[in-house]
From TrEMBL:
Gene3D superfamilies: P-loop containing nucleotide triphosphate hydrolases (3.40.50.300). It comes from Candidatus Thermochlorobacter aerophilus. Coiled coil: none annotated. Belongs to the PhoH family. This is PhoH-like protein. GO terms for cellular component: cytosol.
Length: 191
């Protein structure tokens, strides 16, 4: 499990402590998710045996991850070069899941997001798929959908009409692609 070490809109400045203490705040959401799924003893065992590793994205350079299941979380905050570096860590018998929300980019320039760029570069490569989620997929508090609606409405209102129509068409296309992929998987589960 990896995440970019990017702060959400405010700088926390110098953090005291050793390396683990400095990176822990960036990785805390991954630990929280693991604690929701595993007992503390089982998590400790898996981490000690390196069955599960939680690392900052920057520490993946130079590695080849064979027989691995890789999750890059918050990938909207990975630059294009970091995204390439992460994706090229794949070794034999490995899979990668890249997650993120391009509406929550915290990089100084949103255009630097490797997640935003990836569909344009990688969509036609066999073995790579993209799945787009929307507010109906939210599994947090019921109010989160309403909060997302409010922010999306404001964003649409600020957007020029032509760009708004283009964005709405893209969202419809993504939903249709996902629907067709789900149907194809139901017909042929090996897809």
């Amino acid at each position: 499990l990896a995440r970019p070490a990017v702060e959400a809109g405010e700088s926390l400045g110098f953090l005291p402590g050793d390396l683990q203490q400095k990176i822990d705040p960036y990785l805390r959401p991954l630990y929280d998710a693991l604690c929701d799924m595993l007992t503390p003893d089982k998590l400790k065992e898996y981490m000690e045996k390196k069955v599960i590793e939680v690392v900052p994205l920057a520490y993946m350079r130079g590695r080849t991850l064979n027989n691995a299941f890789i999750i890059l979380d918050e990938a909207q905050n990975a630059t294009s070069m970091q995204m390439k570096m992460c994706l090229t860590r794949l070794g034999t018998h490995s899979k990668a899941i890249i997650t993120g929300d391009t509406t929550q980019i915290d990089l100084p320039r949103k255009s630097d997001s490797g997640l935003a760029e990836a569909p344009k570069l990688l969509a036609d490569i066999p073995g790579i798929s993209f799945v787009y989620l929307d507010k109906s997929d939210v599994v947090r508090h019921r109010l989160v959908r309403d909060i997302i609606d409010a922010y999306e409405k404001r964003a649409r209102e600020k957007m020029p009409a032509e760009e708004r129509r283009h964005t709405e068409r893209r969202q419809e296309d993504r939903r249709e692609e996902d629907r067709l992929k789900n149907l194809a998987t139901q017909v042929n589960p090996s897809l």
